[in-house]
């Protein structure tokens, strides 16, 4: 077993789930700040969760097309290790956010077909990490967290990317080992694949996901 695949468990809303993510060996935990999401948390709850996060578990705030007013309030209220930009932020806006808030920034790129891969080269110069996720269906309420996978074969022949990247989209304890094998991902991100219903995490699945990611 290799321990070199880092796991992010996203959409946590209870202290027990944060602790379970750490106990399972996750490297990152994610808090969602998007009102339409069943995983949305308030600044107050996120502050409590992030303040009690075990050492070694990086705290990631997932935001969608945020303005500076919101980001000012977020970064004042919640201790964070990374911002995840999961909307239609332009490369210029990503660079602006990175410079203004002095936090590592991970930019999500939605992939449905080979033509979507070009965006990776546009964003790599301005972010710290890339999150390669399934593109949401047309008209979806959520730009991510839909439990949809994309064709992993699209990543099999990729050229070198200049930033660390995470694989996301429809990952579960049952498919994560194959996803890692087929894409060569060294980091993976999961949300709905560890839930009993939208927003309700099942922490009994966390360990098997982490172990299978590293298998
Ligand atoms: O999880 C959400 O509710 C969410 C809302 C808005 C943008 C992104 C969201 N989740 C992210 O989507 C991917 C894939 O999630 P899933 O495993 O397919 O459910 C992941 O990066 C989440 O962080």
UniProtKB/TrEMBL annotation:
GO molecular function: phosphoribosylanthranilate isomerase activity
InterPro entries with a match to the protein in the record: Aldolase_TIM, PRAI_dom, RibuloseP-bd_barrel, TrpF_fam
Keyword Metal-binding: no
Matches recorded under CDD domains: PRAI (cd00405)
UniProt-listed Enzyme Commission number(s): 5.3.1.24
Keyword Isomerase on entry: yes
Domain N-(5'phosphoribosyl) anthranilate isomerase (PRAI): 7-212
Keyword annotations from UniProtKB, A to Z: Amino-acid biosynthesis, Aromatic amino acid biosynthesis, Isomerase, Tryptophan biosynthesis
Pathway membership: Amino-acid biosynthesis; L-tryptophan biosynthesis; L-tryptophan from chorismate: step 3/5
Catalytic reaction(s) noted: N-(5-phospho-beta-D-ribosyl)anthranilate = 1-(2-carboxyphenylamino)-1-deoxy-D-ribulose 5-phosphate
Coiled-coil intervals, chain numbering: none
Cited Pfam families: PRAI
Biological processes, Gene Ontology terms: L-tryptophan biosynthetic process
PANTHER family membership: N-(5'-PHOSPHORIBOSYL)ANTHRANILATE ISOMERASE
Family classification: Belongs to the TrpF family.
Name this polypeptide is given: N-(5'-phosphoribosyl)anthranilate isomerase
Organism: Roseobacter ponti
Lineage, opening ranks: Bacteria, Pseudomonadati, Pseudomonadota, Alphaproteobacteria, Rhodobacterales
Name of the coding gene: trpF
């Amino acid at each position: 077993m290799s321990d070199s695949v880092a796991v992010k468990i996203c959409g946590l809303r209870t202290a027990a789930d944060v602790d379970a993510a750490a106990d399972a060996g996750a490297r990152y935990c994610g808090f969602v700040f998007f009102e339409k999401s069943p995983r949305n948390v308030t600044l107050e709850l996120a502050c409590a969760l992030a303040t009690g996060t075990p050492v070694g578990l990086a705290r990631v705030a997932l935001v969608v097309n945020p303005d500076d007013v919101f980001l000012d309030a977020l970064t004042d209220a919640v201790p964070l290790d990374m911002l995840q930009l999961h909307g239609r932020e332009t490369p210029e806006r990503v660079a602006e956010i990175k410079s203004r808030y002095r936090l590592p920034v991970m930019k999500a790129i939605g992939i449905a077909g080979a033509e979507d891969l070009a965006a990776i080269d546009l964003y790599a110069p301005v972010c710290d990490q890339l999150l390669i996720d399934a593109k949401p269906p047309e008209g979806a309420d959520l730009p991510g967290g839909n439990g949809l996978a994309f064709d992993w074969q699209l990543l099999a022949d990729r050229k070198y990317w200049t930033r660390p990247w995470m694989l996301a989209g429809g990952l579960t304890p049952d498919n994560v080992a194959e996803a890692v094998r087929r894409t060569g991902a060294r980091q993976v991100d999961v949300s709905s694949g560890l839930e009993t219903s939208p927003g309700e995490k099942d922490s009994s699945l966390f360990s098997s996901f982490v172990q299978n990611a590293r298998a």
